[in-house]
Amino acid sequence: MEGLQRCFVLHTRPYSETSLILDVFSEDSGRITLLSKGARRKRSNLKGALQPFTPLFLKWSGRGSMPVLTHAEPISIGLPMRSYILYSAMYVNELVARVLENNTPYPVLFLDYLNVLRELAQADNPEPALRRFELALLYHLGYGIDFLHCAGSGLPVDDNMTYNYREQRGFIASLAMGQLTFTGEQLKAIAARRFETPDQLRAAKRFTRMALKPYLGSKPLKSRELFIPRGRSTGK
Question: Phi and psi for 58 in degrees, rounded to 5?
């Protein structure tokens, strides 16, 4: 059908007695808010389909602040997000909903989003997949940074040297230690998006939290508030 786009529902909320407002991430239009009329009616065939983590074909009409959904069909069954992994997937959805502007296409990021959901559905430890997606998100937002060279000297980073992060400049060799300090080995792992040790994962998490903070603002992430630690990490 002409006009269909591959999409995922990020979040839904009730509207009037029978409708839903959908926060959607689409392959061609980016993040968009849609009105789904009648989706809350008991006999609506949309109830089961308009769920997060279900690949969908959607079509809508209208050019206002809230176009109206006109067609929805599942591409496949929803990706299974079991127990604690569900909170990590909810975190990914909240990141996308919070930092992307409406109606700005991110077709490559859409594929990164699809990949992280697939990885999470199969993961025992969600952290490597989350760190890779956070770094992809930063890249597509235009957050360009060189992890492989000292911003002061231009020399390649050395595994055993320490580097202090300076906003808008990059990483500069330094003997001072703190929350903004990373080893060359950690920076290489972040650049390659390969996290083989707990230390590399902790460093990547520290960096992405710091780098994403200006985009997220001071408002807490609801997905973090929902999580109650039970001996496992959500990776957020």
Answer: -125, 155
pTM (2 d.p.): 0.89
- The CA-based angle 4-32-144, given to 5 degrees, is 110
Q: What is the β-pairing status of strands 19-26 and 30-36?
A: antiparallel
Q: Which residue has the tokens 């985009």?
A: 215
67: amino acid identity, one letter:
P
* Residue located via tokens 């300090």: 181
- What is the pairing mode between strands 162-166 and 170-173? antiparallel
Beta bridge partners of 21: 13, 35
pLDDT per position as a tens digit, 12-32: 999 999 999 999 999 999 999
Q: What residues contact residue 98 under an 8 Å CB cut-off, 6+ apart?
A: 215, 216, 221
d(CA 16, CA 53): 25
Phi, psi of 59 (to 5 degrees): -140, 145
Tens of pLDDT, residue by residue over 60-96, are: 998 778 999 999 999 988 888 987 899 999 999 999 9
